[in-house]
Amino acid sequence: MPWEAPQMAELPEVETLRRQLERDVVGRKVKSVDVLDTKVIPRHTNRKQFAGMLDGAKLKSLIRRGTFLIFTLDTGDRLIVRPGTEGQLRKTGAKDDDEKGTAVVISFTQGGQLKYIDPKRTGELWILTPEQVAEGVDEIELLGYDVVDQPVPWADFAKMVLQRSVKLKTLLTDEDLLAGIGDVYSDEILYDAGLRFDRLSDSLSVQEVRRLYRSVVEILHDAIKHGGTSVEGGWRDLHGAAGGYAEYHRVHVRDGQPCPRCRDVISKAKFGGKTVYFCEQCQT
Known about the structure:
Elements: H1 11-24, E1 30-35, H2 47-54, E2 59-65, E3 68-73, E4 78-82, E5 88-92, E6 102-108, E7 113-117, E8 124-128, H3 130-135, H4 138-141, H5 154-162, H6 168-172, H7 183-193, H8 206-225, E9 266-271, E10 274-279
Antiparallel strand pairs: 1-6, 2-3, 3-4, 4-8, 5-7, 6-7, 9-10
Helix pairs in contact: 1-8, 5-8, 7-8
């Protein structure tokens, strides 16, 4: 399949990857590692140093933290994959040609390969020793609530919203508050909750906060159920398949189409240098 530039992988896409990797990759032993571009391993001194920490290791287990994938190796080390805005993981056969943008190839003793593909080198892979794991990684430790991995207490969510005075799109996409929500799902969450992207968080009523809370949880879980979102040939899963949630979008990239709720026309606007999609009529 030819490479197509993807939209940023958000929590549902990375959770889809985690489940597939758990089934198809975890438990395999690494035979060799080929780093085709050192730009995706900036925390390592060279190719050999990175590859040497993986060679012969078994991928014992895998967890997700926000949009970070963390493999535990049988050596005690951790392999961390942060896809960034365009990185993807692909499980392939040993004889399959590398796709354009392939940066790292991990070959397994039982056959097959795991490839990290990232044409613009927006993501990163790195390996932590047990000592470094104990010290913690700021990018991961400082992540906010992951509403799929850990239910957020209602009181904590309400406090997070009402004790700030920020626009709702900004609040939802702030990884210090909520992990893994980006442009796609913030649009869909705000539409589902009937709230405008530029509404100030501390202006919400308790009832509106409850609607927002419910929408955050339900939209993310629903997107995971459908394998995430692929917009205009964007993100692909571990086996190269598109996510199915785009057909359930109600506003994102639907400008000019009728609103499913009120039949007014879906609008788009610039916000923070990006495009936001919403309904002028029924989001207040």
